[in-house]
């Protein structure tokens, strides 16, 4: 499955790939219109989650399950990636001052990831004036 960047002037198709060449996307923020193909992804995602044992020692998570479902249904789905400039991950936004400065004023939502704990996340937002 190839995904296009939506609305940031990139007409080429792009895909986020894992080390095995499979599409791998972060599931922190999804906007999904209820088309037939996208409903298929959700149904497959649910199957993937239900197929794993969730225990204190085996903390399965939804992101790998989503990506397995996405790769299974790739031929049935058309999708877009949100532009990184407007929707950066925490690793990029908080870890790259030059990028943050170059794109200032264009951020819509910043994913406060790559840090653990509510209090830590809140403090980092405060440190960056967010």
TrEMBL record:
It comes from Ceratopteris richardii (Triangle waterfern). InterPro entries: Nucl-diP-sugar_transferase, UDP-D-xylose:L-fucose_XylT. GO terms for cellular component: Golgi apparatus. Residues 22-125 form the Nucleotide-diphospho-sugar transferase domain. It comes from the Eukaryota. This is Nucleotide-diphospho-sugar transferase domain-containing protein. GO terms for molecular function: glycosyltransferase activity. The lineage of its organism: Eukaryota, Viridiplantae, Streptophyta, Embryophyta, Tracheophyta.
């Amino acid at each position: 499955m190839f995904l296009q960047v939506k609305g940031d002037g990139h007409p080429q198709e792009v895909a986020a790939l894992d080390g095995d060449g499979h599409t791998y996307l972060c599931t922190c923020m999804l906007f999904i219109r209820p088309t037939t193909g996208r409903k298929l992804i959700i149904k497959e995602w649910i199957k993937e989650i239900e197929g794993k044992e969730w225990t204190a020692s085996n903390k399965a998570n939804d992101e790998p399950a989503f990506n397995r479902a996405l790769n299974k249904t790739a031929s049935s789905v058309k999708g877009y990636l949100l532009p990184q400039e407007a929707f950066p991950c925490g690793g990029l936004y908080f870890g790259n001052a030059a990028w943050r400065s170059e794109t200032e004023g264009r951020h819509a939502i910043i994913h406060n990831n790559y840090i653990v704990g509510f209090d830590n996340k809140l403090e980092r937002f405060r440190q960056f004036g967010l």
